[in-house]
Amino acid sequence: TDWPDEVWWEIKDSNGAIMIQTSCTSTAGSGPKPSNDGEDGAPYDRTLWFPEGTYTVDMYDSFGDGWHAWQ
Questions:
Q1: Angle 14-20-26 (CA atoms, 0-180°, nearest 5)?
Q2: ∠ CA 34-37-41 to the nearest 5 degrees?
Q3: 66 to each of 1, 28, 52, how far by Cα in Å?
């Protein structure tokens, strides 16, 4: 079983500014948690438009057992 409430992600521009950040509703684990309340991290089904440039997607698992748990 996957645990979508344990995952969250953020997209940063080339200056490190957070363009969008999702939230993590799980209280399990000691892994990183987002600093604000965005939309749920998974599943996420939106079209995002950013100005042309370089972006980084950082993905996290608050429980620490990987994006797809034991799989």
A1: 125
A2: 65
A3: 12, 13, 31
pLDDT at 25: 63
pTM passes above 0.85? no
Distances (CA, A) of 44 to 9, 14, 30, 54, 59: 10, 23, 23, 21, 13
Cα–Cα distance, 45 to 35 (Å, whole number): 21
Q: How many helices (H) and strands (E) does the chain have?
A: 0, 3
Which DSSP state fits 60? Answer: E
Mean pLDDT, each 10-residue run in order, the chain (71 residues): 72 93 65 54 79 92 67 53
Bridge-based pairing of strands 18-21 and 7-13 is antiparallel
